[in-house]
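Pair request: fold both.
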Amino acid sequence: MSSAAFETQRAALADVVAIPVTPFAEDGSVDRDVHRALLRRLLDGGVTTLTPNGNTGEFYALTPEERRLVTELTLDEAGDRAVVLAGVGLDVPTAVDSARHAREHGARMVMVHQPVHPYVSQAGWVDYHRAIAESVPELGVVPYIRNAQLTGARLAQLADACPNVIGVKYAVPDAAKFAAFARDAGLDRFVWVAGLAEPYAPSYFSAGATGFTSGLVNVAPSVSLNMIEALRSGDYPAAMKVWEQIRRFEELRAANGSADNVTVVKEALASLGLCRREVRPPSKPLAEDKRAEVAAIAAGWSI
């Protein structure tokens, strides 16, 4: 397939890429009805790109059956209102199975989670992604890069073999490294998504990103959309006004090695009466002393 065949998918990446939470019922199972309601709220709020089974969706805490359920619920709710970028990962056969399952249910793209393995060689990184990308040549493939050692040349090597590798979720917290990596890989060859959400979006956009991921968007879609509108128009002062608005919320999420990354989002949603606050280990519900602060921030945004 030529890159022109992936025009819709490329456009969907150059946007707010929402990472929905996975709400749990009182018995600990995935709450299907609440999940659908939260997805509808995102769609009604103007979100047009959804990533089920992302980190904010607690990908690593879900069973294989739950990951399939979350993918199916998302694709069903999205219909023709949004492009779905389904998260896949773990061992190669599991990732391939997940990618094919997503394709069968109507997904247009998959995001491949950073390989979770103590020993990752650069050539092995290429092999891992190539095996997944070649299994679903009709889908756009987006590697999720958190490895600061990986070179842009390796991404270019992967895309030479797999033309369906069309975008990158870049999540190394270093704007200078991102700028160099993107240029070494091919700035115009891929859609560059700032994978560390709103706090990093302005600096990464200045270096060539055209989309960013968001967990905050679950709480306040308009805030995230305001930021991307400012960045698209090159209005960095306006984007930084939004940055100031979201700063404390994102600091709470990032504290202690991002221990409360999902917890803070679910706490904000719980404060608005939209879902339960429960998260699964190794995450932990927010301590009482932080709950009021999160609720105040969420209430302060124009929801």
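--- second member of the pair ---
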Amino acid sequence: MSIFPVDIVAQAEAIIRDFTAAGLMVSTAESCTGGLIAGALTEISGSSSVVDRGFVTYTNTAKMEMLGVQEETLIRFGAVSEETARQMVHGALFRSRAAIAVAVTGIAGPGGGSAQKPVGLVHLAAKSRAGGLTHQKMHYGDIGRDEVRLATVRTAFGMIQELAQL
């Protein structure tokens, strides 16, 4: 039995199966999900051949130190931005042995939102060593902290699978 919903387990199983068959590895850079993406992947037996590493970079300092996010980016655009997500995923990919990386940064709530950046806003980026880069800006809404985080895991898994095209 898993601590994750059945649909997330199914997505994780597919990623582990497909990446194992292709000999690919993945890394994660997580802020608002706090490691849930890596946690859902490692819930699956055999994930050690696929999951290279996960970076939980909840603070701006961690984003800069662990992933190389530029301070200027954080000042100009904020932690919850497309620019930050793109720099996070770049850092995760090139600080790992992964073929594909995914990064997420957002506002899970219940507090912390603003008119410009409301609760439920999440930026996700996925990048491949083969050159692919995708970004999604999600407005999940104020659906509750757990639901924002789980919805983000689902979206991240979809992006990983799409970029891998397996």
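Observation on the second member. DSSP finds six helices and five strands in the chain.
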